[in-house]
């Protein structure tokens, strides 16, 4: 059966322990290994997966990371010096597929694979560790600029899955906010309050992003109100 944008097989599953990143010796969970056979998924993610910095990685709202395998070709073309290292799993993702990407995966989408049910909670926010992983300065900024960040799932139903299981979309909560559109709104130089509020209202968006966007809207409104309160200079008097 040919893959569609809502029904694709999992080409590979990755998980792993902590490795050392760069000459500075930073610990990181970006180094994943292919999972052979059955993988068990619980609320915190895939059994056997680990994260070095639990403040920003892992947890129920970032339980499983998915990155579109097609994006590696984009990165390899732009960064030929790292092309040989740009292979599925090397960006620390748990799932590799072809057919799902940031343009057709939406915030709140619900998928089933094997005995597991997952919901898209938020994009991945690329950080400096990507630069160190591939020894390419500015790579994380490029990933963000091109909006090829991948995304996270929360686990709605724990269970088991394996390579070859089909990710089948069960439900879509918003027709507007794909992962790419999310970044379009969040990264806008002059963000529209109405757009951010519409994003906050999406069922399934991670609470932390709801909080951050709500605070940003409050700050913009307060700033605009303060500017409007400044007396306007009248015409010069003789």
Task: Characterise this structure.
This protein is an alpha+beta fold. It has one domain (7-173): PK beta-barrel domain-like (M1 Pyruvate Kinase, Domain 3, Beta Barrel), CATH 2.40.33.20. Helix content is 25%, strand content 25%. The protein has six helices and 14 strands. It has helices spanning 71-78, 129-134, 139-145, 179-186, 193-200, 207-229, and strands at 7-9, 12-15, 19-21, 26-28, 33-34, 38-42, 45-46, 64-68, 95-97, 110-113, 116-123, 151-157, 159-162, 166-171. The strands form three sheets. It has a nine-stranded mixed sheet with strand order 1-14-10-11-12-8-9-2-5. Strands 7-6-13 form a three-stranded antiparallel sheet, with no helix packed on it. The protein has a two-stranded antiparallel sheet with strand order 3-4. Strand 3 (19-21) and strand 4 (26-28) form a beta hairpin. Helix 5 (193-200) packs antiparallel against helix 6. The longest helix has 23 residues, at 207-229. The protein starts with 6 loop residues before the first strand and ends in a 9-residue tail after the last helix.
Number of H- or I-type helical stretches: 6
Helix content: 25-40%
Number of domains: 1
What integer is the average pLDDT?
A: 91
In the CATH hierarchy, the architecture is Beta Barrel
CATH class: Mainly Beta
| H and E order | EEEEEEEEHEEEHHEEEHHH
Distance between the termini: 84 Å
CATH homologous superfamily identity:
PK beta-barrel domain-like
| Spans of at least 5 consecutive residues with low confidence | none
Please compute the radius of gyration using only Cα atoms: 20 Å
The tally of strands reads: 14
The structure class reads: alpha+beta
Please outline the major beta sheet: 9 strands, mixed
Any idea what the shape is? globular
Strand content: 15-25%
CATH fold call: M1 Pyruvate Kinase, Domain 3
Major sheet strand order: 1-14-10-11-12-8-9-2-5
């Amino acid at each position: 059966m040919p893959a569609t944008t809502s029904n694709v097989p999992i080409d590979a599953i990755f998980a792993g322990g902590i490795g050392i990143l760069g000459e500075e010796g930073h610990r990181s969970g970006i180094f994943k290994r292919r999972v052979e056979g059955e993988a068990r998924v619980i609320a915190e993610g895939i059994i056997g997966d680990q994260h070095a910095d639990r403040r920003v990685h892992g947890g129920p709202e970032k339980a499983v990371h998915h990155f579109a395998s097609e994006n590696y070709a984009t990165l390899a073309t732009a960064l030929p010096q790292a092309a040989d290292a740009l292979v599925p799993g090397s960006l620390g993702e748990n799932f590799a597929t072809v057919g799902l990407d940031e343009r057709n995966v939406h915030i709140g989408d619900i998928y089933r694979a094997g005995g597991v049910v997952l919901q898209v909670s938020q994009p991945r926010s690329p950080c400096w560790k990507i630069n160190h992983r591939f020894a390419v300065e500015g790579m994380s900024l490029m990933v963000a600029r091109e909006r090829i960040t991948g995304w996270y799932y929360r686990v709605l139903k724990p269970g088991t899955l394996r390579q070859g299981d089909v990710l089948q979309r069960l439900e879509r909560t918003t027709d507007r906010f794909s992962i790419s559109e999310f970044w379009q709104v969040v990264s806008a130089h002059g963000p529209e309050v109405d757009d951010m509020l519409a994003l906050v209202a999406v069922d399934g968006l991670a609470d932390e992003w709801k909080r951050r966007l709500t605070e940003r809207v409050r700050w913009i409104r307060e700033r605009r109100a303060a500017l409007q309160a400044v007396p306007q200079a009248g015409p010069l008097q003789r």
